[in-house]
């Protein structure tokens, strides 16, 4: 059985005057340790589906199962990393990272040492006791990644976590996140508008159509690209062909939508 199963999920947003169908009959599965990406036109429901997987939104129809358990509410077993880091400005970096165990009442000296070790491994050893306002955007996102991993989630959801960063920082952080998730064998889902980012980081990519959102097509990233870091994958001779293929599918999809 798949580690993550999304079974016939549909979702509608209701108002007093009308309703919007955001998702239509989404079914897919993800194996443990796999990294997949969702791409598609704006408004195709990618982030809505991520919120459903996280248990933040209950789907109008269908169900989501993680590790053979139906998702019914938010849980520390599902980590969520967003575009904005949401670090508490009045807490130091190490205190922000330890927030999850502190809330759960599971904070120990061992976890404190693990937090310091993890922050050191990603190059934040000099800012352990600094405050978020003293760090760059890339440094804050690195801290946010460690904070998410400190609760040892079964699955990690990434909703455009690099889109607000400059290009050089984005490339460096892609490598860091990819290497960290592979090291911990985390099952991960990335929502992005960046085709190159999806190819560089993923094992499989799902392209969504809009109005309502549904799976239009999927693409397997070749093994030889999966084995590289995201930066290396972008330089590989197989990268442009896959990029062009996905871009043409997305372009034709958006053209048909705008008619």
UniProtKB/TrEMBL annotation:
Transmembrane segments: none annotated. SMART domains: AAA. Pfam families: ABC_tran. One of its GO terms (molecular function) is ATP hydrolysis activity. Keywords: ATP-binding, Nucleotide-binding, Transport. Residues 4-235 form the ABC transporter domain. This is Spermidine/putrescine ABC transporter ATP-binding protein. It comes from Pontibacillus litoralis JSM 072002.
